[in-house]
Predict the structure of glucarate dehydratase.
Amino acid sequence: MKTGEDEAMRITDIIATTVTVPLEAPLRHSNGAHWGRFVRTIVEVHTDEGIVGIGEMGGGGESAEQAFAALKTYLVGHDPYRLEELRFKIANPTASLYNNRTQLLAAIEFACLDIIGKHLGRPVYDLLGGKLRDEVEFASYLFFRLPNEQTGEGEIRTVQQLIQYTERLRDMHGFRVHKLKGGVFHPDYELECYLALANAFPEDRLRYDPNAALSLEDAIRFGKAIEHVHNDYFEDPTFGLHGNRRLREFVRIPIATNTFVINFEQLAANILQPAIDVILLDTTFWGGIRPCVKAAAVCETFQLPIAVHSSGELGIQLATMLHLGAVLPNLTYAADAHYHHLLDDVIKGGKLHYENGCIRVPDGPGLGVVLDRDKVSEYAELYKRLGGYPYDRDPARADWFPLIPNTRWADHRA
């Protein structure tokens, strides 16, 4: 092993590959849809010792290859162990005002932690203080869905379809926590759906997330109507810290966010003037796994509950979520994951498996997952053929675009 500054490991190259992996069906949300597939940019960071670390980033249906290529001048020659220096090289908080690189930094951090773990022969969770749990519990992430274009199957629009799909997920994966992604149909109809879930699965826990599409008035009305339900929390019900601070005066359900507290300035503001009760930590939005661990420690100090958020993932980012979940003592809620909507993955061995609603934390060196080169090639070719998609548009609603608060809801009857 090299020792000393001159003999430190160095990054020699960064290679980014955009892939698109099919979903069971298009997933609708308040701001648009995932159009039947995820578009993800896979990042490989090469070193002079032959160790290659892997990372992953989304991008709202678009490729991030060019953005990563632009970082080569920052990265080549850098010691992957020097992660704090890397943070300021790539995402200096003042310089980043002109080119927000937080999510790019996250993917590079994933790869550097993967390199360090492989270099030391230890899993990433050991670099973060050691694991406290061997598996992480997940919620079933329920979306209203359009039919699959090829098969015509997979639609979730009616109450019956939602209940049947939830029952199938429950039987298949063992979920006992269910999150309904809303903001698609009128709040009155989504309230009917949510209460139907509560009645169908009275022993399970629930959470509702309309992506801040509701007006404050609708959020109050919805929240009061579900106070009696076995709720985990009310996620991003209305827009902004002040809007949710007002909401807390009227609704006796914990308010959660992955949108309005995603950096340390916002976390400090929320602690000084509470608006959010549960902080949802996202390894991409916060700029990596390590910032999430730091944020979780701040939340532990101030007795703020946390959960692990999903921004849409393949197996690489899922591994970052698992290593994060493994080390957090104050993780009391099930994590989110889009993962069960995927038909395939780009890691060797295929998709990671759920058991009793949980996924086991990888124990191999680094992130503990390895790229399947054939799958990467297959889905890179699929991306070249299909291209990207506009995340903030709904393929079922021509000329529609989202407003906040929204008043132009999709029609649940058709």
User: Anything to note?
Assistant: The first helix runs from residue 65 to 69. The chain has two domains: 5-121+374-386, 127-371.
